[in-house]
Amino acid sequence: MANATHGRASFCNQAHALVRKNLIYQKRQKCDTCALFVSPVMIVLFLKVILDLSRGTNKQTVPIVPSEICKRTPDDFGCEIRNPEKWPPVMQIPALEYRAVRTDFMSYLDLPDKSCRKKGSCPVTILATGSNQSLGRGVLGQMFTNASFQNYSNSWGNLSGLVLGSVMPLGESYFFDPAFMDLYTIQQHCSSNSSFPLPMEVEFETVSPVIGCVQGLNLWRNSSSDINDELINGYSEGNTKRQTNEIAAAYDFLDSKKNVFSVIIWCNSTYKLGDGGEPDTSTAMLLRVPQLVNLASNAYLRFLRGPGTNMLLEFIKDMPKHNFPMSPDLSIFQLFASLAFTLQLQIAAKALVYEKQRNIRIMMKMHGLGDRPYWTVTYAFHLILSTLSILCFLGCGKLFGIFYITKNDYGIQFIFYFIYASLQVSLSFLAAAFFSNIRTVSVVCLVATLVAVLAGNFIFNPLLKDPSCPSEWIFAMELFPFFSLFRGLYEFEQYAIRANKVGAEGMRWKDLTDSMNGMREVIIIMIIECLAVIFIAYYVDQVVSSGSGVRKSPLFFLGKFGKKPFSPLQKPTLERHGSQISKLTEKADVVLEREKVEQLLLESSGNHAIVCGNLKKVYPGRDGNPPKVAVKGLSLALPRAECFGMLGPNGAGKTSLISMMIGLTEPTSGTAFVQGLDIRTFMDEIYSSMGVCPQQDLLWDCLTGREHLLFYGRLKNLKGGALMSAVEESLKNLNLFNGGVADKEAGKYSGGMKRRLSVAISLIGDPKVVYMDEPSTGLDPASRNNLWNILKHAKQDRAIILTTHSMEEAEAICDRIGIFVNGSLQCIGNAKELRARYGGTCVFTMTTTSECDAEVEKMVRDLCRDARKIYHLPGTQKFELPKQGVRIADVFELVENAKGRFTVHAWGLADTTLEDVFIKVTQEAEASEVL
């Protein structure tokens, strides 16, 4: 409880306080934090398991593909292909690092030395055998020739005279063979200029791959069993799964003669991988065998008729097909990715609604936290958490090889997910503006997520893939944030599947310019929606929601221009008509206070910290009940260095008055000025010099007492050593320092400890005006006594308004006391003045047997005719006696006479207490209200 004036905290200091508080809060929310970062990892793992389990399943499980998608990826299963492309035949050759060389277990001297792998000169080996060795060797020698590239450099359709090979794996179909992106000619010898570029059209783009050259090596073996052993040994060296000494192909010419040609072909099919990575030999045999057959046939003709004879295989192509419907399926990637990212909405919304439901949001605001730092820091904080979750998702996807992620550009994926995360944070602010219960918003977010996931898979996806669906419908559905997410995931999925099938690239930045790609469209939609939603959320929060204090006018933003602080001379005058009527019914002291307030509002003096001018609060009627008047035109002036105590029965309007003064509710009429500023228009400025101890303890359960004080101290512009000193002093003064209490979470505090912490929060940072609503509730006598001493010291340089039901507390610390009944101020003054004004009587009490009650009452009446019985219980009676009409000696004489006639158990004569005054004033006010 520092004594120095620190001024209003800057934006940076408020942001710093909020960031540190948020980090601690998020650290303690272990379940939500784990869900935020572990769920992407678990979802990626589960997705990998699903993909692994789906190996070998029927590939014809894709839905109908719309025509615009078929234009981009016409090889997709379900796209119509009327005129398949004509491609030259290609044979599968081993990659350089796997081509056959001499080894310990393959010691054929005709194989090259393994050093050729480092030099990049290993040939492609073809083996042959047969019963007619002379014919077989002759045919084998005619397989590879040297050809000039001049005749082939301008046309893909004229490559049939070359023996072509590729190390690339095969695609899903033969509409486009990825071999043409890495193609070689196989010749007897390769010269320095034996490679050439050849332009080609691939999916409406012109590419110019370079066709290289590789040497072919023909080797003879004595028998087919030798070939078989050599192939097996080359495949299984070291029991590894990858081929390490591969043969490109092998031939057994059997008993071929000049007029009979018989051949068995071994083909290399190891590079065609299925969905799970395992070889798929059946497709490879169909697509790579034609070149091997033609290679043997041409060699046989050249052996018989000379080198000028050729039987050319000009092209091969896929069979034409029609578009046909397939049973729709759930998109696995969209399903799991959407679950990973929509979870963030629920976590952010819960955190925001928690502060609203517990009124902690307004508590922070009442201690100086402005809307601008709150919205900026909270938005950025949740966006950073979402971004970290995105990075976990992408990192795990790359780590586990999820091709939906690895095939597409990581930059595009991050930008898309980041923008969607921003939109989700905006939506969480909007949800927090409409909901004020954690359970409600959690259920709503969960149901919305499930409905969106199901609707996206069963409604939106089929429409995306339906060529007859109008693009306007798709655009309209993309305006819903969840469907924007699904559209983006759909595009990632399509590009990844295409890349996985044909070996091409996934989505790249250049693809965003494709008119058929919806990614750019949804990114623009989400950016616009993100900005629109956050502005709507802020507007609703200020105008409709009560989470940020008093609801503002629907046109509040217009009042921000040219706003200047009021000077006292500019203050509005009171409602004179209402004031004159009140003076007819109010007590003299209340009227005097009202006149004092009216005079202050006309003067320029700033000596009074609080001035309430005819403040009134009326709650509208509900369920057929009339409106409830909580505060009836209160006028009160409170100077600095004064503690004003508010007494009154339950429902008298004390808390309603405090609520108006701290900005929780708006006055129906009248106003109040705090430090010269009007609470109706300058509440944000008033908050910087105000401290509040509300009736209910507004604390974070997971923050410790020390962390609470550090946070609110920073909001009051305390820094460094001054902050730590103020926190330590507050903890010690309120008995929260010893026994580790200061570092215990507030949720584990007792009721009294929470009250003491609330009092410490209200006083830290030297606020000039402090409101305390029943601060001693739940305190033990020692703690209550200590609290009174603290407040006596605190009121020396600040104004304090305190509500209480303890008369002893009011007398101990309050300089002036006001008694409220039914929303009206009935009397005002210090305790001595009130006792003198309303206590011109003394109370006589006598306890006897119940049979003597009538005789006791007669004796008292005989002593004083004006005696008034105020309490009667069989055997015990209390009488109010006017001080002017009774002498104390007469009372003693009365008691002595009574003792001689009957038994007197107890008796007493007491002066009027503040409690008696309170009861009397309350009864009189309620009686007049009934009349």
Task: Give your account of this protein's structure.
This protein has 931 residues and is α/β, with parallel strands linked by helices. 45% of the residues lie in helices and 15% in strands. The protein is built from 29 helices and 24 strands. The strands form 5 sheets. Strands 1, 2, 3, 4, 5, 8, 9 and 10 form an 8-stranded mixed sheet that branches. A 6-stranded mixed sheet has the order 16-17-18-13-19-20, sandwiched between helices. A hairpin with a 2-residue loop joins strand 14 and strand 15.
Helix content: 40-55%
| Global structural class | alpha/beta
Would you tell me the overall average pLDDT? 80
Distance between the termini: 49 Å
Per the principal axes of the C-alpha atoms, what is the gross shape? rod-shaped
List how many beta strands DSSP finds: 24
Low-confidence parts: 1-5, 56-64, 237-242, 272-284, 325-330, 561-581
Rounded radius of gyration (Å): 46 Å
Q: In percent, how much strand structure appears in the residues? A: 5-15%
Oligomer: single chain
Biggest sheet record? 8 strands, mixed
Query: How many distinct helices?
Result: 29
Pfam families: ABC2_membrane_3, ABC_tran, ABCA12_C
Main location: membrane
Organism: Nepenthes gracilis
GO molecular function: ABC-type transporter activity; ATP binding; ATP hydrolysis activity; lipid transporter activity
